[in-house]
Design goal:
27% strand, two-stranded antiparallel sheet, 11 strands, alpha+beta, 9-stranded mixed sheet
Length: 275
């Protein structure tokens, strides 16, 4: 049977989902997408995601791949899928891809961004979308922490207890911290991640940036220290799956140039700047 394979760039608010992955006792974003696609196909449709997001984590650039038994025009398929999706999940882009393409295994890297709002008051429309921290961060200390995290290290201390694989070495290609008024944006890019890794990184950077822990403490964690030695796991609400890179499809900004998240991006949030 001939099949046509597609990839979608997916945005969602994760507040009411158990995460990306389909679960037996709760709704995952994967299930929402598979349900929508199956309404366009005589047979159930299975999708593969670029990365698993936790309960309450959001996305602007999650990528998922799937096969259908008929050929669709890309724009028509995007409209059809969005018609059947809940309002808090949307297909932003859709591409025809080669039969061998997998959103998970074809990814060159994945990028997450963690949003922190500082100050004694947080705008109510950002509730559930950022981590509200009344305590200010020392930006220089936070950036020192980011530089220490880059490269290949043993991130055992940055993985959820009981979920750490035997090999916990990972390579972080990009860890950047950028400021936009009261907003801090922490960008973490790597080929792969451990469970809860970015949220524990955010919690540990927070500890250094607030002066609670010294930089030497953070550096010691990268030698394979146990989870209990690291800081708290930052809340899921501040974490966003930002995008993933592939050879088969173009690397697009999460909003595809049609708009910006949290208003216009200032120059200090440009991709080419180190921050």
């Amino acid at each position: 049977m001939t099949e046509w394979r597609y990839a979608v760039q997916l945005a969602y608010v994760g507040s009411r989902y158990c995460g990306w992955q389909r679960q037996a006792d709760a709704m995952g974003v994967q299930e929402a997408l598979e349900t929508a696609l199956s309404r366009l196909s005589p047979a159930p449709v299975k999708v593969t995601g670029a990365g698993r997001t936790d309960r309450g984590v959001h996305a602007l650039g999650q990528v998922a791949s799937f096969a259908l038994g008929r050929r669709w025009r890309e724009e028509r398929l995007r409209l059809a899928v969005n018609f059947h999706l809940p309002e808090d999940v949307r297909v932003m882009r859709l591409f025809s891809v080669p039969p061998s393409f997998s959103a998970r295994y074809s990814a060159l890297w994945r990028e997450y961004r963690y949003f922190v709002w500082h100050g004694w008051v947080c705008p109510p429309h950002m509730n559930g979308l950022v981590w509200w921290r009344t305590a200010p961060w020392d930006t220089d200390l936070a950036r020192d922490a980011c530089r220490a995290l880059e490269g290949e290290h043993d991130f055992r201390a940055f993985c959820q207890t009981g979920e750490c694989p035997e090999r916990s070495v990972r390579r972080l290609d990009r860890v950047r911290l950028q400021r936009w008024g009261p907003m801090t944006v922490l960008t973490v890019r790597a080929p792969s991640f451990l469970m809860n890794m970015v949220r524990i990184i955010a919690g540990s950077v927070d500890a250094v940036a607030r002066g609670e822990r010294p930089l030497a403490w953070l550096e010691s964690l990268l030698q394979g220290a146990p989870r209990k030695d690291a800081a708290m796991t930052a809340p899921a609400c501040g974490l966003w799956f930002w995008r993933a890179a592939y050879r088969e499809i173009p690397l697009l900004p999460p909003m595809g140039g049609e708009g910006a998240f949290f208003g216009p991006w200032p120059s200090d949030l440009n991709e080419d700047e180190d921050g």
